[in-house]
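Q: Please design a sequence for this.
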């Protein structure tokens, strides 16, 4: 039991490090400069720039409503929103159709395929290899039929007549259409809500403003032509082939500041960047059909191939607010890091300064095994004492190492 008691008294002890004060200008200045650098880094970057005293909410909740306005003229017909915007719900992703290829009065039946390069033929033998396989606009029957007075193509079974890719010019008025965006956001951690209609926006201003990067940075109405230009795209080219443009709304909020510092910032990019320089599949297009019934009950349809500019409204953001826990954690990290300077100073002190040997002896006198360890290394391994001293300096691991080697 005496042994156990000594065990207990051994446990309840406190060890403190013995300090050696070195009065040297060189090492003194290095020490203070290193400490100053570390403190500057923590105050300037970690606390002021990165705002490490705040907790952040990055799980932004958002809703987006959009509305397009404007009239265009296409094939001598006036086009309104219901004609050129799809889908019509006014969601965050919508398309403005800029070019149409329509094929009217299609019915189920047999007709020549309109893809002339691949399905051109002179008699049925050219078409037998396609029999019952998908052709361009239907399923091939294996027969060769006249396409017009000049040429013949393979026959298909499907919606007839087959679509003919005509050359149309895009609806240029699209450039002057406007997109109105209503965006509400919420940061759930702080239960903070805000919208992109800032309190200082009046009804009169909204009725006449257009967003621009300089004077009307908070106007929620965007001219299509401006959006395309801000995304560094050529409007004619985009309208011709179609494409996807991203309208990004960023909310970076510091909730320690007043409410009018939490504002949206808009930016624009082309999202389908790979289709720009791609000759195989440039741009963006899709097909849809409108179905009708004849009096005798047969279905017929109008097929539309639409080239469109798709707009994706993307909302992102985060908010920060002062909180005790991150402040404490980062302050502790800052104070601890100031101690990192001693590692550097120790290396210099024990190796490069005049009288390094004496300092070594002074520093390690209370831990004889440490000195032994040092000597052991210097004799046996290599004269590379810098490495050794660095090992010793990280006292904890050095202790372990020392015990292992002795
Ligand atoms: C767009 O509007 C401007 C000014 O109202 C007009 O000068 C221009 O011709 C319009 N552009 C198109 C393509 O209609």
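A: Design:
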């Amino acid at each position: 039991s005496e042994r156990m008691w000594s065990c207990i008294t051994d446990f309840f002890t406190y060890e403190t490090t013995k300090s050696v004060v070195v009065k040297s200008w060189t090492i003194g200045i290095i020490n203070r400069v290193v400490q100053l650098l570390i403190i500057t880094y923590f105050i300037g970057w970690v606390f002021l720039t990165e705002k490490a005293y705040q907790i952040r909410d990055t799980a932004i909740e958002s809703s987006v409503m959009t509305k397009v306005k404007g009239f265009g003229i296409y094939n001598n017909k006036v086009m309104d929103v219901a004609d050129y915007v799809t889908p019509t719900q006014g969601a965050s992703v919508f398309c403005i159709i800029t070019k149409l290829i329509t094929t009217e009065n299609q019915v189920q039946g047999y007709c020549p395929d309109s893809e002339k390069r691949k399905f051109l033929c002179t008699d049925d033998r050219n078409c037998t290899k396609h029999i019952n396989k998908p052709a361009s606009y239907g399923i091939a029957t294996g027969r060769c039929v006249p396409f017009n007075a000049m040429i013949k193509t393979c026959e298909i079974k499907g919606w007839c007549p087959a679509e003919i890719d005509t050359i149309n010019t895009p609806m240029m008025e699209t450039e002057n259409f406007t997109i109105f965006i209503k965006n509400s956001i919420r940061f759930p951690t702080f239960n903070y809500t805000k919208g992109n209609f800032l309190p200082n926006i009046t009804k009169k201003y909204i009725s006449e403003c257009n967003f621009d990067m300089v004077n009307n940075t908070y106007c929620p109405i965007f001219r299509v032509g401006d959006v395309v230009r801000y995304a560094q795209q050529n409007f004619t080219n985009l309208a011709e082939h179609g494409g996807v443009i991203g309208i990004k709304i960023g909310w970076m909020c510091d909730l320690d500041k007043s409410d009018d510092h939490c504002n949206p910032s808009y930016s624009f990019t082309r999202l389908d960047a790979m289709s720009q320089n791609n000759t195989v599949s440039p741009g963006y297009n899709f097909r849809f059909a409108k179905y009708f019934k004849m009096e005798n009950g047969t279905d017929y349809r109008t097929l539309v191939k639409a080239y469109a500019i798709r707009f994706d409204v993307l909302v992102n953001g985060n908010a920060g607010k002062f909180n005790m826990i991150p402040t404490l954690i980062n302050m502790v990290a800052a104070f601890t890091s100031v101690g990192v300077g001693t590692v550097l100073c120790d290396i210099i002190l024990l190796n490069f300064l005049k009288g390094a040997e004496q300092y070594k002896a002074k520093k390690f006198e209370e831990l004889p095994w440490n000195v032994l360890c040092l000597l052991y290394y210097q004799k046996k391994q290599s004269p590379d004492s810098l490495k050794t001293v660095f090992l010793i300096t990280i006292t904890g691991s050095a202790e372990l190492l020392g015990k292992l080697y002795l």
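Q: Thanks. Anything notable?
A: Residues 25-49 form the longest helix (25 residues). The pocket of 2-acetamido-2-deoxy-beta-D-glucopyranose is lined by residues 172-173, 175-176 (CB under 6 Å).
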